[in-house]
Here is the input.
Amino acid sequence: MRYPQYKIPIQKINDSLYQIIAEYPIDRVKDVQGIKEWLKCDTTFRNNQTGLYMFCRKIEEVEVLNN
Here is the structure.
């Protein structure tokens, strides 16, 4: 399932925040790298408990500069 632009969930994984762009069943995904490039994602997680690949974009932290 690919999430609509206005409903992209955010999830904390390994102390980092990620936008979950899409989730697809592991058994239906034949080309992880191809889907990752198509969705413009930088990270993919395989969740064996749910049986899903999660295609994500990492949310980079912003450094605040004090003048």
